[in-house]
Amino acid sequence: MGLFDFIKGIGKKNTAPAEPQAAPATPSEPSAQEIANKLLGHIKALGLPVAGLSVSYNGATDLAIIQGQVQTQADKEKIILAVGNIDHVAQVDDQMTVVTPEPESKFYTVKSGDNLSKIAKEVYGDANKYPKIFEANKPMLKDPDEIFPGQVLRIPA
Predict the structure, then answer these.
(1) pTM of the shown model
(2) Parallel, antiparallel, or unpaired for β 106-109 and 2-5?
(3) Which CATH number, 1.10.287, 1.10.260, 1.25.40, 1.10.10, labels domain 2-98?
(4) 60, 61, 125, 137: which could join 141 in a potential S-S bond, CB 3.0 to 4.6 Å?
(5) Any bridge partners for residue 8, and if so which?
(6) Which pLDDT tens digit goes with each residue over 42-68?
(7) What is the per-residue burial (b if ≥16 Cβ within 10 Å, else e) of 114-128?
(8) Architecture of domain 106-155
C-alpha cells in the first residue's frame, strides 16, 4: 500500500505497555525506541494477527514503519490505522505483505460533526449501514459513538 498520512497530535494517547526491551521512560518526550515499543505493544494488545511483526519509529519525521506478514488485506489496514491513529504518528510506511491479496478499502478522515451513520450515508447512501463501518474498524473502535475528528477509518467496499 505504501505511505499513509495522519494528523499528528490528534490521535489517541498510546497507553499500551511497551515491549520489555523498552528503555526507561523519561519525564519529557519519549525516545523513538520507546514510541516504537509502545506501538508494537498497542498492535499486540489489540490482538491483530501478524507474523514477524516489526515496528520502528523516526522521531524526526514522526514516521512509523511496519513490517510483517498478515493473512488478509483487512488485517493489514487495521494495523495501519491502529498505528496511524496514535498521537505521535504523522505517517505510516506500510511494508507488510498479505498472504491472500484482496481489493483495498477506502480510508475516511472523520470531520467535526461526523458520526458513523452520517459517514455511512455519505459513502454508501444509507445511514443504516453504519454497522458495516463499525465492524470494519474493530478492535480499534469499541463503541460506534466514540470517533473523533481527524481519526482515519476503514470503509470497506
Answers:
(1) 0.84
(2) unpaired
(3) 1.10.287
(4) 137
(5) none
(6) 999 999 999 999 999 999 999 999 999
(7) bebbebbeebbeeee
(8) Roll (3.10)
Domain boundaries, the chain: 2-98, 106-155
User: For residue 131, what is its C-alpha cell?
Assistant: 454497522
Q: Which three cell numbers stand for residue 24?
A: 526507561
142 closest CA partner among 10, 8, 9, 12: 12
Residue 19: all three cell numbers together: 515491549
Cis peptide bond upstream of 27, omega within 30: no
pLDDT tens digits along 109-122: 999 999 999 999 99
d(CA 89, CA 61): 9
The one-letter amino acid at 94: D
Q: Which residues contact 95 (CB under 8 A, 6 or more apart)?
A: 65, 66, 67
Query: Which residue type sits at 65?
Result: I
Cα 149 off chain centre by: 15
The cell numbers describing 149, all together, are 475528528
